[in-house]
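pls design
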């Protein structure tokens, strides 16, 4: 019996040391999520879309734009026909986009800022990821939600204001069409990079 216990202890200690020493840094491979992400990326690249970095933060005060604001209109519901078929797993979209404040023009090389108020689908969700895609002069921001961890956690409000910034140094000058997608009413506007 002593030998069995000693063998188990030696095996557990040895396995732990090897695992800690040779483990890859970062998160491990998640087959379902990683394969869906790879398939989506391949489809988007084949269709001419590219992913751009976007920075987001919250909470923010509802701002007043110093420059001339862009004219914001209602956009089509959902991802749209051009993006709907590209995703291996459809992102969980916001319920609606209520208010957008963004400038109508920005000099090239500076960051383009936009503020938007979004309604969450339930109080047990929050925005998990903001992905910005570009095809030509069209920019599409896809905010996706994720459930709050635990059973009892809930958001305090159904809506929140978010601030995004997009680096314009790699974008050519010209007029861009921007849209933020949601399940319900979404928002679209155009702006110039000078």
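designed seq:
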């Amino acid at each position: 019996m002593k030998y069995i216990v000693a063998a188990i202890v030696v095996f557990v200690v040895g396995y732990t040391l090897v695992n800690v020493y040779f483990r890859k840094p970062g998160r491990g491979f998640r087959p379902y999520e990683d394969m869906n992400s790879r398939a989506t990326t391949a489809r988007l690249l084949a269709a001419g879309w590219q992913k751009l970095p976007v920075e987001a933060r919250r909470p923010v005060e509802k701002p007043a734009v110093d420059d001339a604001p862009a004219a914001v209109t209602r956009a089509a519901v959902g991802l749209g026909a051009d993006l709907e078929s590209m995703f291996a797993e459809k992102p969980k979209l916001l319920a609606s986009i209520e208010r957008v404040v963004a400038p109508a023009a920005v000099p090239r090389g500076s960051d383009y800022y936009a503020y938007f108020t979004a309604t969450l689908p339930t109080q047990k969700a929050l925005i998990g990821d903001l992905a910005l895609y570009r095809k030509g002069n069209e920019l599409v921001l896809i905010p996706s939600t994720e459930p709050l961890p635990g059973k009892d956690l809930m958001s305090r409000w159904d809506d929140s204001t978010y601030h995004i910034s997009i680096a314009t140094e790699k974008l050519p000058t010209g007029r861009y069409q921007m849209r933020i997608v949601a399940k319900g009413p979404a928002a679209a506007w155009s702006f110039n990079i000078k």
